[in-house]
Amino acid sequence: MKLRRPLFRKYLRVLTGMIAGTLIIASLVQMTLSAQAQRARVDELLVAQSQLATVQIETFLGSIIDSLSWALDYDQPGSAADHAAIRDTSHRLLRKVPPLTQLRFVGKDGCVVMEVARVGVDRGGACDSFPLLADEKALLQSARGKRAAFGRVFFRDGSAPYVDIAVAARGRDGGFVLAQVDLRQIHTTINAIRVGASGFAYIVDRDAQLIAHPDPNLVLRNLDLKGSPPVAAAFAGNGAPRPAMLQDLEGRDVVSVAALVRGPNWWLFIQQPAREAFEPILVSLGATLVVVLAALAAAAAASYVLARRMASPILAVRAGAQRIAGGDLQTRIVVETGDEVEFLAHEFNRMAEALGDSYAQLEAKVMQRTEALAQVGAKVRRQADELAFVNDELNVRLDELALRKDEAERASAAKTRFLAAASHDLMQPMHAVGLMVGILEARIRSGEESALIGKVQAAVHSMESLFSGLLDISKLDSQSVKVELRPVRLQDLFDFVGTNFGPLASEKGIGLRVAPCRRAVLSDPVLLERILGNLVTNAIRYTAAGKVLVGCRRAGDTILLRVRDTGIGIAAGFQTQIFEEFFQIAPHGRNGSQGGLGLGLSIVKRSADLLGISMRLESVPGRGSLFELALPLLPLFAAGAPGAPALAANAGAAQHAQRLQGAFIVVVDDDQDALYAMEQLFTMAGCHVVAGVSSGALRAQLRGHLRTPDLIVTDWRLGTGDNGLHVIEGIRRDCEQMIPALIVTGESAQPGAAALPAHCLLLRKPIGPARLFDACAGLLAAQPTEQNSDQACLLL
After folding, report:
1. In whole angstroms, what is the distance from residue 108 CA to residue 40 CA?
2. Crossing angle of the two packed helices 447-477 and 600-611, in degrees rounded to 10
3. Alpha carbons 717 and 745: distance in angstroms, whole number
4. Do the Cβ atoms of 225 and 246 come closer than 8 Å?
5. N- or C-end of the chain: fewer Cβ atoms within 10 A?
6. How does pLDDT run across 485-495, given as a tens digit for each residue?
7. What's the pLDDT at 665?
8. Of residues 52 and 640, more confidently modeled
């Protein structure tokens, strides 16, 4: 029989447990007291830091209010305000107080008498020249009761936070000074606050909006922190909040304290990671563990010595017991130790005598034990069956989990496919808005309205670019882009770049140079045009001065297509991240990005991977960047192959509009807004226009015309069972002529070049008036010479 609890182990456990228990209790008491003391020190440090920071911020705001009171010294009760002196004082304040960006003096009647700004000319005039907003009027009323009042924090042009401060003159008949204050100086105060190695501070306004943080990018994102545990606790509490263990913006455990900035009612939060705050306690715990382990080792050694002294009589008892167990019931154990071991030996001797007397009952006992063992075996088998059942249940649950995972993946793929399929419905209103803005630009000639139309058109172009980028990403995600490899002339592609991006570069005052190239490559012309267009757009966007160079160089059996710029460059740490979606680099010395969503280079990377094109990037911050694509080279005899499907040499929109004058154009679109816009544009260009929402409606109208149309402009999707191909085929069949056609589509899955009829061009929505006129003029210029414009249509 195997001993379950040997005496040696028993003594070892008792002695070790006594020593270890004493040390552990003492260590726990010490650690508890140390933790309380460390927590008190952390709380005192955080409270002191918060009080110091709030005093600095309140002093900064108070100094600005005191400075603004200088201008009101010239608006005393009982006398007229000295506007000239107020203007001079305002100029001095703008020079001496850098955070001030704008000062407005408001009379007692609530009218703005003058406006002095750091950037711009002084303004003054009638009461309705530049009226106050409702929030500004409420701010002035609040300042009347308490001399100075703070408005809500706002972010001007997506940059740094600003706040309006209103200061009232003495007396109820005095005026006000309404100042706009740049809050970036608060960032200096916030950055100077350091608690430990990684503790930091941040400020939210009374609307729980982040206005100051060591990371300025978080401030520029206009974060609403109502759901943050520290902010929610501060806003919901009564009285001054005490330091507490909470979670920060990233979900980490921190010790946080909040302090109210009086005046604007902002909240200052100072946080320190809990792990760093209680690091001394962890060090103490490590030392305590070392001591406890040493004590355990000493207890084990003492127990071992004690067990060795007891070994001889215990071994004698063991030997006698083995003989008795072997069947020698006449054996007697002789031990003379005078302790419990001797008493145990005596009991063994008595047991041997009793065994001799009860030997006859041994068989019955054996049978009883055998039966008990059988019962134990049955119990073990039942437990094994239960374990197998639990294992089967676990496998079923795992199968269900795998099924749900597949369902989630299919749902994600369905979402991407839905966004790609919805491109027509997204692009259709954008297309109509762009055309209608073109109509307004042509009809409105006055300077002020024309400038406004230009701004609207720029905004429309920006929206079109953002939509196109999002839809390109959705098509790449949904794997709906099909690669069609064919010969592409690089010169046609370069002509497209020079024509379409030259005006953009000229507008920024930089040069765009496209080197000539007579080589041809094997690629997909649409994807290659998209890659080069995004690279050139990115180069122009991040180049403030200098030039952008587009060219190519042969390297063996490949052509290296290069786009080089003299822009801001890309740091080595960002050169892998720039190809991720929505990642943008803010230029040095500026706040915010250069516009867009940060999708251009992501589209470039995905399109290049789809084509199997290797791409290389070289960049030096402050000196520029080089993007290089390696394309498979075709022999010179293939240079005559068709190039990219984009329109190459485009003249000005006005010149093409003049070339369209007198043309007979039919327009088909099931969207009434887009149909109206294109009809008005062609009519203003001097064209004869027939418009309809379907192929049947248009052909019915053409029965009253003897003249053959010169051009067909149609949407791809025209409702159930109808599309642009039906329109083109029907009119050409009626007129028995190969009339040029332009298909305008917003569909994600566009028809391939093989599916288009002859003398037909496909453009993707949205397109502006200039591009529409360019495409129509190009098609009319390439119109077949054998067409007789005077021949009547044979309508079926």
Report:
1. 53
2. 40
3. 7
4. no
5. N
6. 778 888 888 88
7. 93
8. 52
